[in-house]
Design goal:
- It is a single chain.
- With 260 residues, the chain is of the alpha+beta class.
- The protein is built from five helices and 15 strands.
- Strands 3-2-6-13-14-15 form a six-stranded mixed β-sheet, with helices on both faces.
């Protein structure tokens, strides 16, 4: 071995392998998702050729929308140090908290995919720690994978997928994930964000408070429904009645926006 390797074993890792983790974040269209789009004018031009729940989700995100319930994403991490690293924990860091977002509300019933390690954050907490998969019957989340001392070790080039979910009530937040890691035996904190920007999640408002409602009705007529909620006196009941009426009329082909 060279003397420089003996004297400075971590120099190569620091110089050639930065950043120590490469991340890839992608949205998951989970079951029962909803998105609030504050600027309704940005959304309108993107609704002309919607043919699926996934397409509607992508349009709402592209228009600056923020997820509420059902918010989840795939976070794939890849080790990028010659000596490897170990992830020992995760928590969410709240960057900004504000009132729930308003504007247009876009929603759809769909189905997500499983397979990655579930990590969930309760964004109502000031310093949300990673939790495991949600438990059944409203009993809260199961303990995090990291709670019992388990860790994820990544060799150089090795990848590991996480399915990250977030829940919130009463506010909107911008947040990032901070991962506790060991690199060459030394503790460090690495930030995971949405491709350079913080994640954004908002609580849902009563449906009557939104300017417009949009749903892709994949289970019925397979078309985009446009429901103007402010003209209705109640929440879910009125929206459901309007959707059923449209489904029975069969007025438009798939992909066309219906307004009531």
């Amino acid at each position: 071995r060279r003397s420089s390797d003996l004297l400075y074993p971590s120099v190569k890792s620091q110089i050639f392998d930065a950043p120590p983790i490469i991340t890839k974040v992608s949205q998951i269209v989970g079951p029962g998702w909803g998105i609030t789009v504050p600027d309704q004018q940005r959304l309108q031009p993107l609704l002309n050729s919607i043919g699926s729940c996934n397409a509607l989700h992508s349009a709402a995100i592209a228009a600056g929308g923020a997820d509420d319930y059902g918010a989840s994403m795939n976070v794939v991490v890849q080790g990028n140090t010659s000596s490897g690293l170990t992830i020992t924990g995760m928590h969410a860091k709240i960057i900004k908290r504000s009132a729930p977002l308003n504007g247009a509300y876009v929603f759809c019933q769909s189905a997500g995919e499983e397979g990655a390690l579930p990590i969930n954050f309760n964004l109502n907490d000031q310093a949300p720690n990673a939790q495991g998969a949600p438990a059944e019957s409203g009993k809260g989340s199961k303990p995090s994978f990291f709670a019992n001392g388990s860790a994820v070790h990544l060799n150089n080039g090795e990848v590991y997928p996480f399915r990250v979910g977030a829940s919130i009530t009463g506010s909107a937040v911008e947040w990032v994930i901070e991962a506790s890691v060991l690199i060459n035996g030394k503790p460090s904190t690495l930030t995971i964000d949405d491709n350079g920007m913080p994640f954004e999640t908002t609580a849902a408002l009563p449906l009557r408070q939104y300017g417009d409602l949009y749903e892709y009705d994949w289970a019925g007529e397979q078309r985009l429904l446009h429901l103007r909620s402010k003209a209705r006196n109640s929440d879910d009941c009125a929206a459901n009645l309007a959707m059923k009426a449209l489904q029975n009329q069969g007025l438009s082909p798939p992909g066309q926006v219906l307004t009531v």
